[in-house]
Amino acid sequence: MEIQLYKEQDVTVMRLDGRLDVLTAKDLETVLLSQIANGEIRIVLDFEKVEYVSSTGLRVLLEGRKALKPKGGTLALCSLPEFVESVLRTAGFDNIFPFYANSQEAVGAV
Amino acid sequence: MEDLTIRKVLNNLNVVPEVIQWAEEFCNQHHVSRNTMLSMLVAVEEILVNIISYGYEDGRDHEIRIELSCKEGKITAAFTDDGKPFNILEMETPDITAPADDRPIGGLGIHLTRSMMDEVNYKREEGKNVLILRKKSNPSKEFNVPPMGKE
User: Fold this and answer.
1) Which of A32, A58, B61, B119 has CA atoms 20 to 30 A from the CA of A90?
2) Do the beta carbons of residue A46 and residue A78 sit within 8 Å?
3) Which residues of B touch A66 (CB under 8 A)?
4) What angle do CA A6, A94, A90 make, to 5 degrees?
5) B108 and A65: CB-CB below 8 Å?
6) Host H or E run for residue A88
7) Rounded mean pLDDT of B1-27?
8) Would you say B132 and B121 are in contact if contact means Cβ atoms under 8 Å apart?
9) B-chain residues within 8 Å CB-CB of A86?
């Protein structure tokens, strides 16, 4: 999985490209947790180019949220393709993470 | 006409990508709709990872047999393993409405699999787990169990 990082209005946007599965979840975990450890607390994950997500990937999102919580941070998700959004809703993640239509909206909201 | 393909792999997580790729090729050959294919791939990953991660305690190599078939518009994945007896139909559904901090780490993959498949059958036969997952390749909706969260 490729992860592109950029900052917009003090928000860290991580643009993900590829499948978020049992093998690539570790890539996201490493980058996400290191950003949080570096003090980034407003984070947007852009899923536009993620076609596939499995439960291992979902766990990384929970871990990120857990690491952000004591710092008062927010983890938002945006640009979810239809299938990925279905998986997230089936897992009940729409109750945990805010979903936004695109990165601009997410950056403005977190 | 039924088309069938079989793959036997060892209980090592490194085999997961090749199995997913093989299942994807099978779905493409049978013109399975994109979302049905993705659902099937997630289910195959979840079950395979589950068998490899939790099925064995002896540290030895074990063979896992996966059979994919397509018949009358239905795609089927059948897993046979000689791991511990494990019936995914008996697993409790995790509380997907619980606050994030109370979410159990386990059980999510099994929940996704049961939700995304049209049929799930399990039997213990001759000391082996036999799990059969089935999904219509052109379903009217992609998920047969609606999410419990807010719409």
Assistant:
1) A32
2) yes
3) 100-101
4) 120
5) no
6) helix A82-90
7) 93
8) yes
9) 35, 142-143
